Amino acid sequence: MKKCIFLDRDGVLNEEQHNYVSCEEDFIIREGVVEGLVLLKKAGYLLIVVTNQAGISKGIYSENLVKDFHNILQNKCGGLIDDLYFAKHHPSYTSNSLLRKPDSLMLEKAMAKYHIDSTQSFMIGDAERDVKAGKKAGVKTIHITGGKETTDLADWQFSSLLEASQFITKAV
Fold it and tell me: What separation, in Å, do the N-terminal and C-terminal C-alpha atoms of the chain show?
């Protein structure tokens, strides 16, 4: 069984925008992200992005743009991310979907595909829905503070991915 870090994208890996990240100049990788990903990868974790992307169903941007942004991130971090899962649904525009966080189907699909041990894994996100998805999947949860939401549901809270990565790699 493998250990994994599930990562929300907007607000954790890149700067959260007021509306949607829908053009390349708005896709700004947060300070310390590359260093944090390197620490986690060196500690033996799979790195999997799980992100709600309702802008697709709203017609704001395409699936290809989500993949393009993922490729930009991969280029910046040396290809450390093992996979990308995204939920393109929104209940007001297309349909309900168990993929969409706070549900946990994206995490569960990755857990089955990669034989992930939930007891050794973490979900890192900046919104309560990320924490709820992690809890439903049975992984430890970390809330990245300073974003648009606060929550007391997470197991731990840190101000950045780098701080969370340093904690995880020292605790292991």
Answer: 16
